[in-house]
Amino acid sequence: MGTKTQPQQAKENERRIRANDKEFNLQYKYHNNYIKTSKYSVFTFLPFNLLEQFQRLANFYFLCLLVLQLIPAISSLTPVTTAIPLIGVLTLTAVKDAYDDIQRHLSDSQVNNRKSKTLRNGKLVDAKWSEVQVGDVIRLDNNQFVAADILLLTTSEPNGLCFIETAELDGETNLKAKQCLTETIELGDHHDALWNFNGEILCERPNNLLNKFDGTLIWRNQRFALDNEKILLRGCVLRNTQWCYGVVVFAGVDTKLMQNSGKTQFKSTGVDRLLNFIIIGIVLFLVSICALFAVGCAIWEGFIGQHFQVYLPWEHIIPKDYIPTGATVIGLLVFFSYAIVLNTVVPISLYVSVEVIRFIQSFLINWDEEMYYARTNTYAKARTTTLNEELGQIQYIFSDKTGTLTQNIMTFNKCSINGRTYGDVIDLRTGEPIEVTEQQTIFHNSPRNPEEVPTGTATSASTKPPPLILVHKAEIHAKKSSVMVTAEGETQLANSPSSDRAEIEHSAPLPPPLDSQRNRGRKQVRYSAPSRSQEEDPGGTIPGGLSTARGLSPSGYDSQRSISRNSAGGLGVCFKRSGPGLMQRQLSSTSSSDKALQCVDFSANPHHESDFRWYDRTLLDAVRSDEEHSHVFFRLLALCHTVMAETVEGKLEYQAQSPDEAALVAAARNFGFVFRSRTPNSITIEVMGRLEEYELLNILDFNNVRKRMSVILRRGDSVVLYCKGADNVIYDRLHGGQEDLKARTQDHLNKFAGEGLRTLVLAERRLTEQYYKDWRTRQQEAALAMDSREEKLNEIYEEIESDMQLVGVTAIEDKLQDGVPKAIANLQSAGIKIWVLTGDKQETAINIGYSCQLLTDELADVFIVDGNSVEEVEKQLRQFKESIKIYNRFRPGGTEALYNSDSNMDPLSVTMTQTSVFMHESSAPPTPPPPPAISVVTFSAECTDLFGDEKRSLDGGAASIVIDETTGFALVVNGHSLVHCLSPELEIKFLDIASQCKAVICCRVTPLQKALVVELIKRAKNAVTLAIGDGANDVSMIKAAHIGVGISGQEGLQAVLSSDYAIAQFRYLERLLLVHGRWSYYRMCKFLRYFFYKNFAFTLCHCWYSLFCGFSAQTVFDPMFISVYNLFYTSLPVLSLGIFEQDVSDKNSLEYPRLYTPGLKSELFNIREFIYSVLHGAFTSLILFLIPYGVYKDGVSQHGYILSDHMTLGAVVATILIVDNTAQISLYTSYWTVVNHITIWGSLVWYFVLDYFYNYVIGGPYVGSLTQAIKDLTFWMTMLITVMVLVAPVLAYKYYLLDTHPSLSDKIRQKSLKKIHSRASSDVRRTPSSRRGRRSVRSGYAFAHQEGFGRLITSGKIMHKKPQDFAFPLGLGTKKTQALHNNLASADQTKTNSSGHHMGNNNNTNQRHNHNQNHSSMADISVEGRVNGADAGGSGGTEDMSPRAPCQDLDTINL
To answer: N or C: which end of the chain has fewer CB within 10 A?
Structure first.
């Protein structure tokens, strides 16, 4: 016992491991490396699965019912009616669960059987991952996954360095450097030395902290401190290192990856949970009804039934000696008899039907061609069949960033050199910049219809699908407005096509935009040619009237949404005149292939990259003509970095610390400035074929405080400092005398920031030899200082990084996945809140937030929580709460007095002057808005105007004032602050702030923190959540959410294997939710409402009949009719309803995201709707029974036959019930297919066929009853009257709602039926757009937000690496105070062109940049304003102003 106490105590407090000592480690019973995520084995599957299934209340209820039906004394129905459906449901669910678990077994087996080289008895052997034990020394080769958490001992690289990729852990694809202890480097790859290594490791217990490890190595009587830099975690990949050795510290479930993976939770939908609650209510209702009838039966038997024992003898088990006792026993038995008779209120067929509907809906998702990604040949896949309708009720989306929103691909997009921009393409017809959108279109290699996108339909085994060809296309779109910079550097406002666009839309509204998938592979170019000619561009033209500006350079224009629209798809060129002097030209690539935009040819450069795209030839011409400034620009890019170069198979490859640096060095490479190699003290580049070698004197590396990096180089007798960094940092360190250049470059920065690009400012400084020597001496003294070393070094760096000359600006695009901004905009319009949970840094996440429109400049402010303690975080949250209160205090929605309907002034003129162009017949002069200048009021057409209330529109009906949902706040939380936000004392405050924000971004979060955030929202908000990700670091979040969506991306399939749904691109989430999710919820709710209605209408007939049969549990219907009612007569119509029903098309579902709102509020099926269905069914059953009963009671046919027999009444009521069900479901059905027609009318015919077959062929007890009844006119008149009485109220109520309270889907359906194409207002419809401009005056800088490799380079430790491709999305996107609009009108000078429209010119670039920001809703409203008679000519100089009031930061409010 004494020997076991010490290990047990050590296990509780710390972990003790001895390398290569299996017996020592076994006493602690550490977990091995075996992974198990499956739930069952062959032997445990049946009992465990049945136990789980009978935990569902419904299954247990039907099991009890089956037991009751096995007792003959109380059952009037055969037990087969319940047994067969119950067994079917259990079998179907078991098969599905078995399939899912088999997939988990296969996944576990694949991981556990991976091979790892393990040191055993001094030799390396190939062992399975599952056989690796704690304390084993294992070898890892390059590009190999780490099998377990290991302590790094030795590597192939000098100084014990190795590089790992942690994409599986934190989603980051950049390489991280790890370094082993210097004392263990000597072990090398000598197996004997490694086998004799007997170091003892004392470390922390297993935990989920990815960035923390505390331990001590005891070896050779010395103790060495261990930290996270010496640990390689399971799931990482070894990169750029030939081999390394390590000792296993944590294995299997103890590894940090598995500690963060979370537990698999049982997921059920909100409809399921509501059904469980409803079933409990129905069971209680059933018990109460049965008890009431049991009491009634006992009373009836005690007073009346005892006298009829000759005709109705009591059972032999009933005591006949004492009447009250016998009556009581009969009542008790009748209680169970009624429980069986009335069980059809909730039949087992309900659950069978639900499972069938979900199963088929899953296939509809799998077969959707619109969610097929041809590039990877991937379809959407529903990996579960039980959660489809939950997709229609999502309230919160939690998304990963890297690989989910972005492609993690950086591209060199634009630049500014010496005050001149490059990278824009100019349309010579209008003189306006054209937005270029690159796409790779996939075509079938077939002679017919070459533009057809593959549908992905299955082909037969004998027919091979045609090969796919990737064709690079460039879509070009005219910008809304632009600012031209002349060769002299002066700025002028080019003709804005906004007025022309308005006139086009006024005279001939454009059709709604086609789906982006259908437009793929087709180029649209729309030219809005102004009648007044622009300055002629001396540059050469590109085919199709496109040119890059040679003498002119675009500057400061806004990146606005494209106004091009695809018209009716005809071939060739068509012209449409839409107003005086205005022409719309549309080209299609089918007949105008020569119009395609060509990228610049770099093939003359032997080191060029084939996938590099650049469309402005003027920059290449400048480089080739030896233009000085362009050479300095690219020479700086080729020299100022920490990239490593390597030649692989004759091709030069780069390993970069971040994809930003890789993009910049690659751009210089393609323009002829090729970075070739480096040593610790030199850099070699190739300039236009000539080698240049520079002596590397210093690297002033980047960190989060400096936000810049510099290199000091010597070549010959000259010493130069090259610097690149954030704009605000570099601008403060430029020398005087270059104000004009700084102003023009600032304009370009604003423009690039408005387009969401990541920018860096480049600068240089020429140094004298003497100055550098003096500085170098002082720098070495500071580096050796024992006190305040960092502060002294920063002061030295500040000294030399000053008085610099501005060189230019780079603009890099962090490529989003296709369609991400549009998908996010539509999902937010649908009322869904989107949170981004990423392991990336704050600046990178903010920058991507702006790029994907999760963050916009309409936001009043972006709150950043970065406190390091509970007190700091609480203080920040309190400040943000006060800011929101101030903001809400001045919201226009709270000042109703300003919007008095009696006022002669348009309501909007009270708060902003920019919207005078939209005022309806308003002659009042514009008045400046009162402070504070915060306004979120927009002008919106009322829904009735939108959907055809033409009288109201013509009468000039009042417009509504709404609060624009795009305004508000965003919240950014850092990982270390999130720990405190999730603590019990702050989580309520955090939720209070977060719930009032439009968007929330959590940075630097661990996988487990992602799951905790999801759990917090689930618990505190009781909201339906969806998590979407693509890597192993997202697995815990995916498991925690109600719905988990995995993206089959570049980070493996871990997320997909843990998900409920798998898609190939984030943009497909929009269709998954707004189309399939909404349809599934809509169909399921409609199915349930009708199902409960028909079953209550059917079952409660027994209740009314019990009043006339002495509560004897006698059924009004034939027992066979009761058994097959839900199986044969009514199952198929309601199944068709649940599978094919839709209120609007998929196109309308995407164009009108507000259609999704009812699912958020559970409006389509809830307790109220259930009660309505029950009452409707009860009313139907009452009418169904009483009218035939009244007609046939004491009735005699015209031939003298008595009609008042039980069987005739039962046959008549049953027939009218089936006819009524057919009529009701016909009214319920909105979308008729062939299947609906066959099932609805076929079921009616099937009833008569089956009734005849059963009674006449098999010989049922009701033989002849229905046949005799239908021969009499009484039957037909009874059926007609009954059905009319039942249908008339439904029709009346339906048309009442349609006329007075139409839903949005009703209005859209009406417009579709009338074939009227009208523009949709912003409160209902969101128009797809290209990237919208940002008004941020300071861009995010594209740089590595951690200390770079400078120290390792200059020390020589990193020189023998094998460079691999790094991918590290780093950048800063900060939101500054937005420029005011109020003095814009006074600064503009009006111009009049030949078409009578006014243009504004403003010399203030920031104001010009801001006032061109048009909200999509305002664009639509301007059209409606004109249609309703607004005076276009009276708009004057405000034509191209922003229709929004400026949204300032809160600190500008004068309280």
So the answer is: N
